[in-house]
């Protein structure tokens, strides 16, 4: 068994465009887990809307969430590690959003906060519902009981193209500012990434990089793709993501994860 730890991105990778986990993909993952391989979801999502997929597949272990900003044990909900952001350093980004009418939310490991949550548009509410999240009203910084690990900006692609272009001109040395999807920009701690979190987890489990496999589809996946011994990009990935991977599988709407796992991980005896 060459690959002892397999990291899977969720949206655009594990799930199809309807945000569904297909029965065929779930069954293949279960078979490989029965061989003794560990799986970890490595996602921009929070624990609350990623752990259900682990349980749906009958998996134990960990989820790497918020693009590497927090790793959580799915049974105990123990935070294995998290990268905290200082609220004061976020001020220029949040002021920009307020001045330009750009939607943002503030995330702790387990909660999501929005300014004016009670007056959210139906479009925003539908987005959060799609990702199984219920936003809370953003309190004063002093009243937050948990560390901030991520700020997510969301909107139409052309709007976020402008935001990302503007912020790219700033000194972002305190943060990791990255596109986590066509409709999202995430701000996390400068040392936070999927790759860094996956490395920490692999080291904790005593697994070398050559025995790690990673599958992803977007720019926020590049750090884990370049870390893993075997890295696979989805066919629906941008060219830069495909270039960072060692192989390319079918798209998320064609069960690309299932096909990759069957090719590289499923022992002949259980096919």
TrEMBL record:
Name of protein: Hydrolase
* Taxonomic superkingdom: Bacteria
SUPFAM superfamilies under this entry? HAD-like
Q: Which Pfam families match?
A: Hydrolase_3 (PF08282)
Signal peptide residue numbers: none
